[in-house]
Amino acid sequence: MLDALAEAARARLEAFSREHAGSRAELFLSEGRRLTLEYEASTGAFTLNQGGSLLAAARVWQGERSGFATLPVSGPEELSRVLTAAARRMSAGPAVSPLGPPVPDASSPLSFPELSAQRARERAEHLLGTVIPPGRVVQAALFAQSAARTVLVRGDGGLAHGGSSREEAFVRCETSRGAIVDAVASPLGASWPLESLRARLAEGVEALEGPAEAVDVNLPLVLRPAVAVPLVEALLWLLRGDGGASLPALVRAVGKKPFPSVLSVQDDPLHPLGTQQLAIDDEGVPVRALRLIEEGRLLGFLHSVGTAARLGVEPNGRGLRLEGTPPAPGPVNFFVVPRGDALPERYTELVARVETFTTMPRPGMVSLVAGGWEVHAGRRVRRVAPVDLSLPMPETFRTLQGVGMDLTFFPTAGGCGAPTLVFPPLLRG
User: Fold this and answer.
1) What angle, rounded to 10 degrees, do the helices at 117-131 and 194-208 form?
2) Contact 404, 339 (CB under 8 A)
3) Among 337, 334, 339, 335, CA closest to 402
4) Reported pTM
5) What is an annotated GO biological process for this record, any one (predicted)?
6) I need a labelling partner for 8 at 20 to 30 A (CA). Which of 57, 78, 213, 318 fits?
């Protein structure tokens, strides 16, 4: 169906251009399929759900006016309806991004990978039998396979095919001090890092069960990846072209060094540990590895065509669409670059994050609850009770003292990757 829509889209765009002199337009067509298995903890059974979608999104420009519309479609005859809806919504101002660079005529459609309920069930049973700590009960688990094909069609005849697939699993385990939620994800058919997930769950349970003492607020903080990654996700917001790039002070810092030398940040579509892969973004711009912070120096932001135009820079292939929305800057595999810095002699090590449903209740502030250990000379000497952390961004990263080698990517944090992060004492007594 998508291939037939793409051919029809070219004809509809030609007709639209004839009918609306001086206008420009594009159609973004997407077909998605999804399969989920929900684990019923009380019975040990799985509930299967499958579904799909076929959407067309239109963007139109005429002078300083622009419009956007997206609608579900069932055939080529409905494409004109989407273009007409976008034209009716045209208004002045930068509500819709400007037309991007010419897209390559990549006329070879990508194949749709098969979603398999049998494979999903086998992988789910293997995961549950492998990663859950002894004596723990899984409170909830969700397993999902998804695949999408896209075609971007421009009024000038440009055509770009895209596609992605993903297989992921989320598990929730209860402890006496709260729940732990963790996940794994990979492109469809790739292996999951189950040993890493098993180790994190086991360490989390150990940190949150048993006698615990109050934390020493005077010790440095060592945040292991599961606790550090919400901070990295907040840093991602600062480095998006529609997030921190709207802050004049941060924009003025490009080319300067607002962070310590131990901090480097990258977004890499081909990172071997990353949770997804992408060749072109949803605006037809090639995706390449981006170094956003280099040893404390701010180099730039993740950009869609629109945010790049507002700052007068080139788009860098991060214009991504959520269902029913225009392209906006987004990451592929965003992470803090690992280093292997030495740890302090004495420190508080936070290894497990208690699930609180949100870690950034308002932009620029990370709030989380985490438990762990007090460590002397590399030895854990006592368990510390979970502590509340409220950390302002980007100020907290300006105090960063060290970065570990243990980079881990987390589907629960927008696919961001974090190694161990070392900070001075940040807790208040």
Assistant:
1) 40
2) yes
3) 339
4) 0.93
5) proteolysis
6) 318
Q: Using an 8 Å Cβ cutoff, are 52 and 32 in contact?
A: yes
* The pLDDT of residue 100: 65
Tell me how long the chain is. 429
> Hey, which bits of 176-240 come out as E strands?
178-186, 221-223
| Both tokens assigned to 85 | 């809806």
Strand partners, 322: none
* Range 2-186 has CATH code 3.90.79.10: no
Query: Is the pLDDT score of 185 beyond 70?
Result: yes
CA distance linking residue 141 with residue 102, whole number of Å? 43
Let me know: does 249 contact 129? Beta carbons within 8 Å. no
Cis peptide before 394 (omega within 30 of 0): yes
Token representation of residue 358? 């949100």
Tell me the domain boundaries of the chain.
Answer: 2-186, 211-423
Residue-wise pLDDT tens digits, 313-371: 999 999 999 877 899 999 999 999 999 999 999 999 999 999 987 777 777 899 999 99
Kindly report the backbone phi and psi dihedral angles of residue 234, in degrees, each rounded to the nearest multiple of 5, phi listed first: -70, -35
* 155 vs 150: CA distance, rounded Å: 17
